[in-house]
Amino acid sequence: MTTDPGRKATFDTLHGTLRARVPELAVDLDTWTRRMMRWHFEPETGSPFWLKRRTSLGFDPLKDIDGYAALERFGLFDKAALRAASATDLRPRGYRDRAFRVFETGGTTGAPCRVVNVTRLGYDVEIYRTVLEARGVDGGDILAMTPGGPHAYGHFVEGLADSWQGAVHAIDFDPRWVKAELRAGGDARAYVAHLVDQTLPLLTAERPELLFTTSRLLLELVMRLPRPLHTYGVRAVCTGGTSCTPAEAEFLRQEHLVGVQWIDTYGNTLVGHALQADPEPGVGGVSYHLPPPFAVLTVVDPADPWREVPVGQRGRVRTTTLLEDLFLPNLLERDSAVRTGPHRWFPWDGVTAVEPFTDLADAAEEGVY
Fold this sequence. Notes:
Elements: H1 14-21, H2 29-41, H3 48-51, H4 61-64, H5 79-84, H6 87-90, E1 101-104, E2 114-117, H7 120-134, E3 142-144, H8 152-162, E4 168-170, H9 175-183, H10 189-206, E5 210-213, H11 215-224, E6 236-239, H12 246-256, E7 261-268, E8 272-277, E9 287-289, E10 295-301, E11 304-308, E12 314-322, E13 327-340, E14 350-356
Parallel strand pairs: 3-4, 3-5, 5-6, 6-7
Antiparallel strand pairs: 1-2, 7-8, 8-9, 10-11, 10-12, 12-13, 13-14
Helix pairs in contact: 1-7, 7-8, 10-11, 11-12
């Protein structure tokens, strides 16, 4: 059900449609980088977080960063600096008169980080809604088996439903409880059952057309259902956060998601949504593509974070976020992935076969989100 037929997109025109609806996506990366340097390092618009660091960088971002490649001069970003920052220091002065929200990361690899949202959520909603339209599943009510509170995921789902005046039926979900239990040597089964128990009556009574959750919780949910998911009115499942193995994904598709589209994303609160592209003929599995110029995803040699690996090779994921809300250059992620080339839907490089980076696998606590 699409509320505005004029908004329809197709996969052949998806990139053009995205650029028409979010004009910033049409700005080339070097031009956008220079624009973000002016925004984040001019006293009138920059955040106290970056303005305080300008004099200690050893270069002038306004003069010396002439394009995206020059961002290497910032070195690798230390996430500890973000954890130590106050939300007011992260808020750009250029948005001093705008409403804002503070979101927090899930704390998979340590204490949560805080970020400020002013415009980013609106970008995310418009981009994701366009992808749903292209797949023919936009509109309708949503069942959100997702974190709320300080977590961006729940707010994003609410914004998406608001864009077509749909209802959101949300469960009470605190992902940190599970991680605390696991770190203390307990297990997540009781809490997962609590989440599923909240979801089942909503699924039956409200018949939502879209289900948003994580892959891990989707596995748990479908195992408890007495009949196939599509019989509850669900047309698409949209997942993010935790991952599942290729065998688990195949099991879900073959046994429980017949008649239901499964739309996955890869990303996090700091970098945003890398969008799923289905396999091209003769190519491997699904790939994920992060839309520049808002963010750039690079697969690098684990021994040399400045060397991008060739297409088809595995490496560690490095990201750069370039938003008015948030500038994070050269952040090494907790994941490894195989670099893919461009896709006809998203004509920029992507990643596939994402899994925890070996050196961080024991330190990360994924939980259910």
